[in-house]
């Protein structure tokens, strides 16, 4: 009897050793050490972001400003005719996204919110995720919040999305079996070959990435990180990436909005 | 049979049962003794020169992502993992082999990937599913290269 239970104990220990945890160890950034990805960049890359005339994002932002004030071809109101300085101003709005939307009963990020306005207020079809038009509009609207502190709500109906995003952040996955937290909570500041691992905040996005030679969304950045650990990336605009976006924004609470940022 | 013998036998049986149902399978059957895999995965010795190339190349092991070795010709060597200069003096070839095959058996929370593992993973990219990150041959080349460090 004793021998059998002893053997069972040994087996449990052995099995435990052979099955590594599916969730990475619990970890967190101390509030005092939260830093934007900007602070890890080379001075030349920082300079590109700092100067609107050399920041390549402005190709998209200027285009977005144009689209914003253009009335739809088939008639109807331009974004700018509803969102004026006095009425429904969008300054600071991007810093509060993703947010839970009562009407659609879902979590929407800035891209999603813009598409809702197209559908509900302009009778237009939603723009495809990562299309130049949607990136340009999103970038333009985000630029109106530059310098504002990231501040999302994770209460009430947003709470389950926050938990979902958090779980993804700590979930080990991919052929390399890594979780976001292992790089961005446990090893930020370290060199991963030529890259300094930052804390993985989303406050610069949409951003121009030198590696892309293009302006791109946060979901595109997340797809790159997932692909890097050889995990199957999720779809653009998926509920789960939007939930991760909410978790990241809450984790980055208080950091200034940098979009349109420039990254390596 | 004495108590020790019975226990050892039971342990052997249980261990192999665990191996099957734990889901954390390796790409082929491998005998692990303590913190080491004494036998070559291919039955042959690897090539040091090929291992040095594997250690650096993006398509291969790309170990320089996280590790540096003094004197190795590769720019921007990482420091997420420990410096592996002279690692052949600290570890036996068998110990190095297990660390490449499945470092997570030794350190469950490590960021070091388990390069010969195919089981117990989730959301693996389609093109990588069902195969290990490195082949047995690539691992043997790395074992040969790293074992030569420091000697």
Q: Radius of gyration of chain B from the CA trace?
A: 17 Å
Question: Which strand order do you get reading across the main beta sheet of chain A?
Answer: 6-5-7
Known CATH architecture of chain B? Orthogonal Bundle
**Total strand segments of chain A:** 7
Number of domains of chain A: 2
The CATH superfamily of chain B is known as: Cytochrome c-like domain
Main sheet properties of chain B: none
**Strand content bin of chain B:** under 5%
Uncertain stretches of chain B: 5-24
N-to-C series of helices and strands of chain A: HHHHEEHHHHEEEEHHE
- Count all strands of chain B and give the number: 0
What does this structure look like?
The complex is a heterodimer of chains A (264) and B (151). Chain A has 264 residues and is mainly alpha-helical. In chain A, 40% of the residues lie in helices and 7% in strands. Chain A is built from ten helices and seven strands. Chain A has helices spanning 2-18, 43-50, 58-69, 79-82, 110-121, 132-143, 159-170, 180-184, 218-228, 239-251; strands spanning 99-101, 106-108, 191-192, 195-196, 207-209, 214-216, 261-263. Chain B is mainly α. Chain B has a single domain, classed as Cytochrome Bc1 Complex, Chain D, domain 2 (Orthogonal Bundle). Helices cover 38% and strands 0% of the residues of chain B. Chain B is built from five helices and no strands. Chain B has helices at residues 3-21, 48-56, 87-90, 93-106, 136-147. In chain B, α2 crosses α5 (136-147) and α4 packs across α5 (136-147). Chain B starts with a helix and ends with a helix. The relative contact order of chain B is 0.20. The A-B interface holds A 3, 6-7, 10-11, 14-15, 17-22, 24-25, 171-178, 182-183, 186-187, 190-194, 197, 226-227, 230-233 and B 3, 6-7, 10-11, 14-15, 17-19, 22-24, 62, 64-66, 75-80, 104-105, 108-109, 111, 113-114, 117, 120-126, 128-129, 132-133. Chain B: It holds the Pfam family Cytochrom_C.
